Amino acid sequence: MLSQKTRYALKALLELAALPAGATLSSAEIAGRRKIPVKFLEAILVELKRDGLVRGQRGRNGGYQLARSGEDISFGSVVRLTEGPLALLPCVSETQYRRCADCADDRRCELRKVFRAVRDSTATILDEWSLGDARGRSSPPQVRLRTPAKPKNAHRRAPAPKSARRKSAAGRGR
Protein backbone atom coordinates (compact mmCIF):
# COMPACT_ATOMS: atom_id res chain seq x y z
CA MET A 1 0.00 0.00 0.00
CA LEU A 2 1.08 3.54 -0.61
CA SER A 3 2.04 5.53 2.44
CA GLN A 4 0.07 8.61 3.39
CA LYS A 5 3.17 10.64 2.52
CA THR A 6 3.10 9.38 -1.07
CA ARG A 7 -0.62 9.98 -1.41
CA TYR A 8 -0.22 13.54 -0.14
CA ALA A 9 2.76 14.13 -2.43
CA LEU A 10 0.74 12.98 -5.44
CA LYS A 11 -2.27 15.09 -4.44
CA ALA A 12 -0.09 18.19 -3.98
CA LEU A 13 1.62 17.63 -7.34
CA LEU A 14 -1.75 17.17 -9.05
CA GLU A 15 -2.93 20.44 -7.53
CA LEU A 16 0.18 22.19 -8.85
CA ALA A 17 -0.24 20.54 -12.26
CA ALA A 18 -3.63 22.24 -12.56
CA LEU A 19 -2.12 25.73 -12.25
CA PRO A 20 -1.70 28.00 -15.24
CA ALA A 21 1.91 28.66 -16.31
CA GLY A 22 3.75 30.92 -13.87
CA ALA A 23 1.16 30.65 -11.08
CA THR A 24 2.04 29.44 -7.60
CA LEU A 25 0.19 28.08 -4.59
CA SER A 26 1.22 28.27 -0.94
CA SER A 27 1.47 25.11 1.11
CA ALA A 28 -1.53 26.31 3.14
CA GLU A 29 -3.63 26.70 -0.04
CA ILE A 30 -2.69 23.24 -1.28
CA ALA A 31 -3.36 21.75 2.16
CA GLY A 32 -6.78 23.40 2.33
CA ARG A 33 -7.81 22.29 -1.15
CA ARG A 34 -6.64 18.71 -0.69
CA LYS A 35 -7.36 18.27 3.04
CA ILE A 36 -3.72 17.64 3.97
CA PRO A 37 -2.18 18.62 7.33
CA VAL A 38 -0.11 21.77 6.60
CA LYS A 39 2.99 20.79 8.60
CA PHE A 40 3.14 17.35 6.98
CA LEU A 41 2.67 18.89 3.52
CA GLU A 42 5.42 21.43 4.12
CA ALA A 43 7.89 18.64 4.90
CA ILE A 44 6.79 16.76 1.76
CA LEU A 45 7.15 19.87 -0.41
CA VAL A 46 10.69 20.41 0.91
CA GLU A 47 11.57 16.88 -0.25
CA LEU A 48 9.87 17.37 -3.62
CA LYS A 49 11.82 20.60 -4.06
CA ARG A 50 15.10 18.86 -3.16
CA ASP A 51 14.27 16.12 -5.68
CA GLY A 52 13.64 18.69 -8.42
CA LEU A 53 9.89 18.20 -8.88
CA VAL A 54 8.75 21.57 -7.52
CA ARG A 55 10.11 25.09 -7.21
CA GLY A 56 9.39 27.27 -4.24
CA GLN A 57 9.38 31.04 -3.96
CA ARG A 58 9.53 32.82 -0.62
CA GLY A 59 7.79 36.02 0.17
CA ARG A 60 4.41 37.62 -0.02
CA ASN A 61 3.63 36.39 -3.54
CA GLY A 62 5.55 33.16 -3.06
CA GLY A 63 4.40 29.61 -3.25
CA TYR A 64 5.07 26.40 -5.10
CA GLN A 65 4.87 25.38 -8.72
CA LEU A 66 6.00 22.36 -10.72
CA ALA A 67 9.64 22.50 -11.77
CA ARG A 68 8.67 20.96 -15.12
CA SER A 69 5.52 20.15 -17.04
CA GLY A 70 2.97 17.80 -15.49
CA GLU A 71 3.24 15.68 -18.63
CA ASP A 72 6.92 15.12 -17.78
CA ILE A 73 6.32 13.84 -14.24
CA SER A 74 5.19 10.23 -14.03
CA PHE A 75 3.40 8.62 -11.13
CA GLY A 76 6.19 6.03 -11.13
CA SER A 77 8.91 8.63 -10.53
CA VAL A 78 6.98 10.13 -7.60
CA VAL A 79 6.26 6.74 -6.03
CA ARG A 80 9.92 5.72 -6.34
CA LEU A 81 11.09 9.00 -4.77
CA THR A 82 8.77 8.67 -1.79
CA GLU A 83 8.48 4.90 -1.33
CA GLY A 84 11.63 3.45 -2.86
CA PRO A 85 11.62 0.52 -5.30
CA LEU A 86 8.33 -0.73 -6.76
CA ALA A 87 9.31 -4.36 -6.27
CA LEU A 88 7.56 -6.42 -3.60
CA LEU A 89 10.60 -8.70 -3.30
CA PRO A 90 14.20 -7.47 -3.16
CA CYS A 91 15.30 -9.98 -5.82
CA VAL A 92 13.12 -8.34 -8.50
CA SER A 93 14.10 -4.74 -7.83
CA GLU A 94 15.67 -2.92 -10.77
CA THR A 95 17.48 -0.39 -8.61
CA GLN A 96 18.08 -2.15 -5.29
CA TYR A 97 18.45 -5.84 -6.14
CA ARG A 98 19.19 -8.09 -3.20
CA ARG A 99 19.04 -11.86 -3.16
CA CYS A 100 16.39 -13.18 -0.78
CA ALA A 101 17.98 -14.76 2.29
CA ASP A 102 15.80 -17.88 2.08
CA CYS A 103 16.32 -18.54 -1.64
CA ALA A 104 18.65 -21.31 -2.84
CA ASP A 105 18.60 -20.35 -6.55
CA ASP A 106 16.99 -17.08 -7.57
CA ARG A 107 17.10 -17.99 -11.28
CA ARG A 108 14.72 -20.91 -10.69
CA CYS A 109 12.58 -19.34 -7.96
CA GLU A 110 8.86 -19.54 -8.69
CA LEU A 111 8.13 -16.52 -6.49
CA ARG A 112 10.63 -14.42 -8.40
CA LYS A 113 8.98 -15.22 -11.72
CA VAL A 114 5.55 -14.09 -10.52
CA PHE A 115 6.69 -11.03 -8.60
CA ARG A 116 8.94 -9.91 -11.44
CA ALA A 117 5.84 -9.82 -13.66
CA VAL A 118 3.99 -7.87 -10.95
CA ARG A 119 6.86 -5.38 -10.68
CA ASP A 120 7.10 -4.99 -14.45
CA SER A 121 3.35 -4.47 -14.85
CA THR A 122 3.24 -1.98 -11.98
CA ALA A 123 6.20 -0.06 -13.39
CA THR A 124 4.66 0.01 -16.87
CA ILE A 125 1.39 1.46 -15.61
CA LEU A 126 2.90 3.99 -13.19
CA ASP A 127 5.58 5.13 -15.63
CA GLU A 128 3.08 5.59 -18.46
CA TRP A 129 0.72 7.80 -16.40
CA SER A 130 1.81 11.39 -15.93
CA LEU A 131 0.33 14.11 -13.75
CA GLY A 132 -0.99 15.64 -16.97
CA ASP A 133 -2.75 12.40 -17.90
CA ALA A 134 -4.46 12.28 -14.52
CA ARG A 135 -5.49 15.92 -14.81
CA GLY A 136 -7.19 15.11 -18.11
CA ARG A 137 -4.99 17.24 -20.34
CA SER A 138 -4.23 14.31 -22.56
CA SER A 139 -5.80 10.94 -23.02
CA PRO A 140 -4.55 8.23 -20.67
CA PRO A 141 -1.99 5.91 -22.17
CA GLN A 142 -3.14 2.62 -23.60
CA VAL A 143 -1.10 0.18 -21.55
CA ARG A 144 -1.04 -3.35 -22.87
CA LEU A 145 0.19 -5.85 -20.35
CA ARG A 146 1.68 -9.13 -21.38
CA THR A 147 -0.60 -12.07 -20.60
CA PRO A 148 1.16 -14.94 -18.89
CA ALA A 149 1.63 -18.16 -20.78
CA LYS A 150 -1.00 -20.79 -20.11
CA PRO A 151 0.13 -22.98 -17.20
CA LYS A 152 1.17 -26.52 -18.04
CA ASN A 153 -1.59 -27.99 -15.90
CA ALA A 154 -4.34 -25.74 -17.32
CA HIS A 155 -6.05 -28.76 -18.86
CA ARG A 156 -6.87 -30.08 -15.39
CA ARG A 157 -10.38 -29.53 -14.19
CA ALA A 158 -10.73 -26.65 -11.76
CA PRO A 159 -12.03 -27.58 -8.30
CA ALA A 160 -15.77 -27.26 -7.89
CA PRO A 161 -17.02 -24.20 -6.01
CA LYS A 162 -17.55 -24.74 -2.27
CA SER A 163 -21.32 -24.63 -2.64
CA ALA A 164 -21.23 -27.48 -5.19
CA ARG A 165 -18.94 -29.52 -2.92
CA ARG A 166 -21.31 -29.06 0.02
CA LYS A 167 -24.30 -30.25 -2.03
CA SER A 168 -22.34 -33.26 -3.27
CA ALA A 169 -21.24 -34.19 0.25
CA ALA A 170 -24.81 -33.80 1.53
CA GLY A 171 -26.08 -36.14 -1.19
CA ARG A 172 -23.55 -38.83 -0.23
CA GLY A 173 -24.62 -38.76 3.41
CA ARG A 174 -28.20 -39.86 2.57
How would you briefly describe this protein structure?
It is built from seven helices and two strands; from the N terminus they run H-H-H-E-E-H-H-H-H. The chain is mainly alpha-helical and 174 residues long.
Describe the overall structure.
The protein is mostly helical and 174 residues long. The chain folds into two domains: 68 residues, Arc Repressor Mutant, subunit A (Orthogonal Bundle), CATH 1.10.10.10; 61 residues, no CATH class. The protein is built from seven helices and two strands; from the N terminus they run H-H-H-E-E-H-H-H-H. The chain has a two-stranded antiparallel ribbon with strand order 1-2. Helix 1 packs across helix 3, helix 2 crosses helix 3 and helix 4 crosses helix 5. The longest helix is centred in the C-terminal third of the chain and has 19 residues. The chain is elongated, with a radius of gyration of 23 Å. The protein starts with a helix and ends with a helix. The C terminus is likely disordered.
